[in-house]
Amino acid sequence: MLRAFSLLTSSLLLLALTCGCQQGETSDRLLLSGQTMGTTWSLNMVPGSPGTDSAVLKQRLQARLDQINGLMSTYDPESELSRFNSQAGTDWYPVSEDTARVIDVSQEISAISGGAFDISIGPLVELWGFGAGERRAKTPTEGQIRENLARIGYKNIQLRRGPTAIKKQIPELQIDLSAVAKGYAVDALAKILEQQGINNYLLEIGGELQVSGHRGDESPWQIAIEKPLEDVREVATIFPLTNTALATSGNYRNFYVEDGQRYSHTIDPVSGKPIRHKLASVTVLARTCARADALATALMVLGDEKARLFCEKNQIAAYFLIHDKTSTTVYASPAFERFLNEVEQ
Fold first, then answer.
1. Buried residues in 246-272 as b, exposed as e (16+ CB within 10 A)
2. Looking at per-residue confidence, does 234 or 55 come out higher?
3. Domain check: are 256 and 224 in the same one?
């Protein structure tokens, strides 16, 4: 996992998740949930056409999630991504359309953010002790950081269409899609719901969301953002949202302290070091959850000052929580404010 879970949703959905319910019904909504990608997924929806078969729908959604996980998991040695990572050559490697799409959006966000988002950052995550292995006894040296920087870089990844294939220009380069795959999976499930004629729903995977229509009473969905607190979970604010994807990235839970210095799990691919700015949480609204997912990570890396300029230049709808020791300030980009105003009208 490259980010902490940092979203709360409606109390009804939270209740379903807390109880571990696999499916259930209220008078006007249907609740489904399950597991995927090392986390959970949940769906809170107003049924579409009469006679919606919840068991069949859940089976279809879970099958699609299993398919995506089988392509992009770095924990499954037989996944498409793991097999690409294990090859030492630099030849073109055929990949599925799903994998190609995720890499395409990742490369786009990498380019416009100046490399703040990078799907090849895995070696640095491991180096700083936030990967699957055990944390190092000491923080990395400058030499070790430079050595690992030479093994990464989004510009060393190429994507080809017709037929779809990817290649790496550095034999040891590896790709990790965990910072965008959950968002893509949300988009994939949303397409299934729309095909089923379901237009009013809140869909969530590990904190990444897609909201559509209303809650059943013609009112928008209510989404709560957490305060950037390490030991407690409290709501900072609640937004009414509809017809948008949302992703949040935060650095206030996954960290360690060594010799009085705090090291965050969010690594800057340019410097090769954990971020050290005051930005504690970023929430992004976008047309797709994959894009929102990647942008949230990129903005966390940039920090509040650079990220603010980036959002204003690129019309990104984002909401920041900026934490300075004991106080927290907020910033909502102009695009974010416009979106909320449209929902409230």
1. bbbbbbbbeeeeeeeeebbbbbbbeeb
2. 55
3. yes
- The DSSP bridge partners found for residue 200 are 46
Last residue of some domain: 104, 136, 168? 168
Average pLDDT value for residue range 156-176: 94
* Secondary structure of residue 121 in the 3-state scheme: coil
Q: What is the CATH number of the domain that holds 119?
A: 1.10.3980.10
Residue 232's pLDDT band (cuts 50, 70, 90): low
- Comparing 37 with 228, the larger pLDDT belongs to 37
**Quick check: 15 pLDDT over 80?**
no
pLDDT score at 183: 97
| 135 or 88, which is more confident | 88
Specify whether 28 is located in the same domain as 103: no
Domain span at 135: 73-168
C-alpha dist (Å) from residue 226 to 93, 113, 135, 170, 233: 41, 25, 28, 40, 7
Q: How far apart are CA 292 and CA 244, in angstroms?
A: 10
Task: Say if residue 123 is in the same domain as residue 25.
Answer: no
Number of separate domains in the chain: 2
Q: In 3-state terms, what secondary structure has residue 284?
A: strand
Alpha-carbon distance 216 to 342, whole Å? 19
pTM above 0.85, yes or no: yes
